[in-house]
# Entry
Amino acid sequence: MTRAPSSETDIRLALKALTQTAHEHTERRVEALLPFSKPDAYRSFLSLLLSMHRLGKDAAALIGDERLQAREREAIGLIASDLGPESSADLGIPLPSRETGFAWGILYVCRGSALGGAVLAKRARELSDRNPGRLGVGYFNHCAQQGAAEWRIFCRDLERKRPDLASAGAGAAFAFDTFARLLETRIDLCTAGSGSAVGLTVGQ
# Structure
């Protein structure tokens, strides 16, 4: 039986430990995509983030948390604005479980990726500056301004709701694995050329 966490720090660190391998694999897939090397790779990265935040919105709806639904809708809107017409594509990732703990695990990854976006914002702006008028950076700019504060609020919510740790770990692993598989489908199309790769920061 999984021991119930005794504090906010415990559950966050426990989720991090449970998903460390999946997290590291996902970071390697992000690095292989080279999302800040050229516009096509950047837009592919944004489109996959869009699909993941749509999954996060469904998870937030499942647990009935209006604030988290609003945060995920906000992320979706910002990415859609950055992508323009390309945002209409929807991969339609279904929730594989109706357990609320599983949904909290998905949100752990989605909210953590928004925190990681703060680290990536400078890279996004640099790529945009090299390609004036071609790339939107509203999502990453928002992450830079609000990501850390939103993550702290999420962690407090996580501690207050205290979802089942095993279920939350399974949800987080699913989200990481899904994102990694989506990235894999884009790598061969986008990796020609040069540029710096940056990983995905989750669960600081």
Summary: The CA atoms of residues 51 and 91 lie 6 Å apart. Helices lie at 8-18, 20-33, 39-63, 66-83, 100-130, 138-161, 165-190.
